[in-house]
Amino acid sequence: MTRLAEVFGAFLRLGLTSFGGPVAHIGYFRAEFVTRRNWLSDDDYAELVALCQFLPGPASSQVGFALGLMRAGWLGALAAFVGFTLPSALIMLAVALGAGLAGLSGVIAGLKLVAVAVVAQAVLGMARTLCPDRSRATVAVFAVVALAVLSGPWVMVAVILVGGLVGAALRLETGTSAGALHIPVARPVAWAALILVALGLLGLPLLAGHGAGLALADSMFRAGALVFGGGHVVLPLLQAELVAPGHITESAFLTGYAAAQAIPGPLFTFATYLGGLSGLTGALIATLAVFAPGFLLLVGVLPFWQAVRGAKAVRAGMAGANAAVVGILGAALYDPVFTSAVDTMAQFGFALACFVALQIWRLPAWAVVLGAGLAGAAGLAA
Question: Can the peptide bond before residue 184 be classed as cis, meaning omega within 30 degrees of 0?
Answer without folding.
Answer: no
